[in-house]
Specification:
single chain; 206 residues; mainly beta; Jelly Rolls; six-stranded mixed beta sheet; five-stranded mixed beta sheet; 1 helix; 13 strands; 40% strand; disordered N terminus
Length: 206
């Protein structure tokens, strides 16, 4: 009896993937140790924290992170502070002292651990300012769920205010289906076009 066929079978079995094998564990942890509640509001600057604050795990930003406003651990990526010159498109002022993501880049992304109270379809909205035209955001969740929308330019609404400080309030820019439970939401700034992001809202619609 030849041992060659038996050896070949053993090699082939060793090369096959294990059915049901666990996916690599996501090492990011919620900023402040608490997942963002959904439905609710996600502050854009409160993305997850990575081990050693490394780039490419909980955020992607060319040039990497550094210490900055709101995040002093070395993983701040273009975070600004809302001042007296920040207004909505209708001229009403934003609350002072908050933080937002600015100096954004095409392809930049951030990840947020969320806790979804109930499975359903959710509307994505938030507060955004766009100095140019064509800003586009993609929101992704597990199991292939995805929503995409464009942020209109802030130009022309308040000519006396710097365009990057004029904010749109969007309530139902896109919809995404989310299962219940803890999961990771990835927000991709596909095209920045002078985009600033204050917060993102996730509201159940059905």
């Amino acid at each position: 009896m030849s041992f060659i066929p038996i050896l070949a079978i053993l090699v082939l079995c060793a090369a096959l993937p294990v059915v049901g094998a666990a996916e690599p564990t996501y090492p990011g942890v919620p900023f402040g140790s608490r997942a963002h509640a959904v439905p609710g509001t996600i502050e854009a600057e409160a993305y997850d924290q990575a081990p050693a604050d490394g780039e490419g795990v909980t955020f992607h930003y060319r040039g990497g992170g550094k210490a900055g406003p709101f995040r002093s651990a070395g993983d701040a990526i273009g975070i600004g502070v809302i001042g007296e010159d920040h207004v909505h498109t209708d001229g009403t002022r934003l609350p002072l002292g908050g933080h937002y993501l600015g100096w954004t880049q095409d392809g930049q992304w951030m990840r947020y651990t969320i806790e979804v109270a109930e499975a359903g379809v959710y509307a994505i909205g938030g507060r955004f300012a766009a100095g140019g035209r064509g800003s586009r955001i993609i929101v992704r969740a597990g199991a292939g769920a995805e929503a995409a929308f464009e942020v209109p330019s802030s130009e022309g609404f308040q000519p006396q205010v710097e365009v990057y400080h004029v904010w749109h309030r969007l309530e139902r820019a896109a919809e995404i289906a989310l299962p219940a439970g803890r999961q990771v939401l990835t927000v991709v700034l596909e095209r920045a076009a002078g985009l600033n992001v204050d917060h993102i809202t996730v509201t159940r619609v059905r």
